Amino acid sequence: MESCQEKETVRASDQTTLIHRLLDHLRAETTQLSEAPLRVPASHYASDNHLERELSTVFREGPSVVGLTADARAPGDYFSAEVAGFPLLVVRGTEGRLRAFANACRHRGGRLAQGRGCFEGSAIRCPVHAWTYDLEGCLTHQPNARGGFEKIDPGTLGLRELPCTERNGLVAVHPQADGRIAPEHLLEEFADDFQSFDLPGLHAFASRRQTWRCNWKLVLETFLESYHVFSLHRDSVNEWYLSHPMVFDEADHGLRFPVVRRSIEGLLDTPESTWDLLAHATIQYWFAPASLLAFTWDHWMLWRVEPTAANSCVTEVTLYTSENVTEETKREHFERTLELHLRVAGSEDFPSQERVQQALSSGASDELVVGQNELAVGHFHRTLQHLLEAGARPHRRQPRE
Ligand code: FES
Ligand SMILES: [Fe+2]
Question: How far apart are CA 173 and CA 101, in angstroms?
Fold first, then answer.
């Protein structure tokens, strides 16, 4: 993996240093640069074969961040997710522990639950024939079966449990029962940030799912550079955000990338003691392979991208708030906020990427060029390539944590 030309690593908590880096670039009209540009072949976006390699290595050989503590806060709370087509169910047990299960009934595969909610009476009930499991995944009831399963030990029919880790308010699941989730998969490098945000104390406000006719990586790339803001968003968020400078901090399994608001220019003449980066940037964290957490002003958003084909994907975004929103005016404010994000991404970023996909799939573009200024996009691709190569090598799986 290439290192950046400017060694700008900082302690995650050091917002002042991050502001200094940004202001130095602002004054000099420069931006952080990587060592070299990158050329990404069209096949990485358009080939079914390449997607299959990504699914079988990057997605299935490693964990994914599938949600936040806020998605299942109390015993009995649950949420569903998919990783590379694998349906998951994350449930908080009576003792407060989060568990992940394959979201498939042990009878004949019924989907146990969808979305986010709470299992009444601490019972997970399959909608198809009402087989019932407790929150630990043990089969407790097979109603109306008329002796049909007496020859099968119900102890062998518990839900398939998967590795699940909850750390700093983030929830990661590995889609293989013997898979390993390490602290670095949850970007422990930025733990100070997550703790200062009090991620475990957040509340899930609303989620939206949408389908896009482009490769999953094209969706994530829109978040990882602000270079396009002055042009693609000239009539929308360009009013509030700068295209440059771009600075980022890398991690083995992700990165941190702030998109800087124009208001940061006001800090050029103010004392350091009054600086607060959070007021002047949207701070984003990409978790390999396909999750992105973003903080803006008074809310957090978790974007998850699920590949459905080489040229299509589904996005699921959830907006989180620091308080449980009950007041009508606040509810309206966060509904408008979510709609604004979806409008900008859904009418400018993602449709533009659908047209890029058409160019890649048709052969009109045979490669994409990532500049040295687009260094977060470069790190994104280099990380995926590294995971692809590591996953393709035969290896002995390390013991689970
Ligand atoms: S498939 Fe779930 S009870 Fe039959
Ligand atoms: Fe954008």
Answer: 9
